[in-house]
Amino acid sequence: xxxxxxxxxxxxxxxxxxxxxxxxxxxxxxxxxxxxxxxxxxxxxxxxxxxxxxxxxxxxxxxxxxxxxxxxxxxxxxxxxxxxxxxxxxxxxxxxxxxxxxxxxxxxxxxxxxxxxxxxxxxxxxxxxxxxxxxxxxxxxxxxxxxxxxxxxxxxxxxxxxxxxxxxxxxxxxxxxxxxxxxxxxxxxxxxxxxxxxxxxxxxxxxxxxxxxxxxxxxxxxxxxxxxxxxxxxxxxxxxxxxxxxxxxxxxxxxxxxxxxxxxxxxxxxxxxxxxxxxxxxxxxxxxxxxxxxxxxxxxxxxxxxxxxxxxxxxxxxxxxxx
Length: 323
Ligand code: PLV
Fold this sequence. Notes:
Layout: H1 3-6, E1 15-17, H2 19-22, E2 28-33, H3 43-56, E3 61-65, H4 69-81, E4 84-89, H5 95-103, E5 107-110, H6 115-129, E6 132-134, H7 140-156, E7 163-167, H8 172-183, E8 191-196, H9 201-208, H10 231-237, E9 242-247, H11 249-263, H12 269-279, H13 282-288, E10 298-303, H14 311-320
Parallel strand pairs: 2-10, 3-4, 3-6, 4-5, 7-8, 7-10, 8-9
Antiparallel strand pairs: 1-2
């Protein structure tokens, strides 16, 4: 392995106790600040792991399909590891995100309305150019990479948290969380998975007991916008205590606005959805429904981050939802 390949591309992120968010809950809220990764989201953990393995096997060209953040992670990893990157993004991705990809030296192609269509094009490019496809969420090396965030949390906390809150797009983050919990022996820590209405393929799958493909992504949380979740995420549902919750776009945007004021951190609605777990009282609501039976004294929220947001966009969402 070359020195380039040995370098760690993700950073150990802070875990902080949030007095501001704890004021909204009858328990202590801890935040795992994945927005502080060099690429702005947790994605670099899993994607860099997968890219390194591909390059070790001789790959010279990384091809990624992405709603944005997985692509930025793949482009960053490719640049640092000295190989070429092509990223296919759906047309819903803002131009400034395409520019961020170009800033990482990636070739960018817009294709399709949603991520699933961009992914088909990425598969074509990879087969035509002898490139390696880097899936944004459905690969064991991605989950293994993401699981490192739970190992860090276990190292940093003096006690086991009573619940963990995360979002689900295609389920890569969630699978990483479950694998991390297994690794640190926290098999009994319940996980709350949050999605927004119109990007809720995981909730649809757990309700039906099989994978469901949505017709379209209508949520503003485009980065949660996989039409179908990965099978492993559904399999983990029956192996771990998981509570799948769907919130509105308005709640996700409201959480982004409040978080910006209270923590001075700007995140996209995909991440606002996790924060809505606190701001929209998801835990007390689950308890009222008798669904979360344990006493909750502490909760960890995975602040997954994301680059697809500007103050101007957040203000537009604010007006759109009458906030
Ligand atoms: N975003 C993917 C899929 O988009 C991407 O290509 O970047 N939070 C943020 C900020 C994200 O960007 C994503 C995924 C998620 C959460 C959900 O992660 P997942 O897909 O592993 O469940 C269409």
